[in-house]
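Worked example 4.2. Below are the chains of a multi-component assembly; read each line carefully before continuing.
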Amino acid sequence: MNDFSELEAELKQLRPAPVSDELFARIERTLAEPETSALTAGVLPRPARPNFWWSLGLGLAGAAALLFLGLGFFAKRTSSPTQAVTETTPAAPARLTSGFQPSKLTQVVYHRHDDGLVFSPNQSEQLLRRVRYDTRQTMQWRNPQTGASLRVTYPAEQVVLTPVSFQ
Amino acid sequence: MERTRSDEDWKTCFAQLGPALLLFARRWTNCRADAEDIVQEAFVRFWRRQHSIENRALLYATVRSTALDRLRSDQRRARREAMAADDSEETLDPPFLAMDEGQQLLAAAVERLPNEQRKVLVLKIWNDLTFAEIGNVLEISQNTAASRYRYALGALRKTLQPHE
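Applying the procedure described above to all two chains together yields the following structure tokens:
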């Protein structure tokens, strides 16, 4: 029960404009070329990363800084238990962070990616296994007197290089 | 893998399908040159992947994805997409061959259809795709394709009635 059949027949009478000879020639030329030079949207080669070692160095430096920060964080907590008391004396001016004590440090690894074997940047003969860890680190401080807490969360990437030897 | 198709094969296929491919590509651009670029890139990609020419839904899907890739590639083309979606926008080059007055009115009415309806109409009328194939090409359901087709025909008939 297609009541549009007459209209469909009229539409089919319309002829789309033909393809130009130039387009034929362009396709012929393109097909004659090696596939790698075609303007296709296939899988593109991964671009070179000239700043890779820069990134690696910065990543390692950042990871080291975070490590020291974390160590200092807990060292302060255990070595000066009376700090909060001394800072709350009336003579001392109150600062924004006064009275806060470190209370929690968490690190969640939410993605691990094994890059496989790479050559050492300094020793070209040395093979290393490179593993990247995407983490989210959270530090928390708490003021026991007021009950206020301060929490800082930030993402971090850690790159671990492990020497590999074949025997 | 050995190549089972000769150079002449693509010419035969393209001579047959080229005009309809071009008409379909023009749903994303008002410029014939841009439409030809889209068809060229899509056809070359399709042909090199050794897909069966019988799989026309895949060929049209390649045209669609190529057109969308190009439209997204820069702001200038994005503006053209907006222009193409504007129903009041006139097509720069006639998409159909020279016709009598009645056919000219019909062709003009087709061009005034909403873009989504035009795509379905083009695939159905001039490419003989089924609604299931049209749904695959446009990433819509078969029922949506069928309803857009009916809406398009209804709108055309309504437009043309005063002139008949």
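Take a moment to check your reading of the output against the notes. The radius of gyration of chain B is 16 Å. The helical segments of chain B are 7-25, 32-48, 56-73, 75-85, 101-112, 115-125, 131-138, 142-160.
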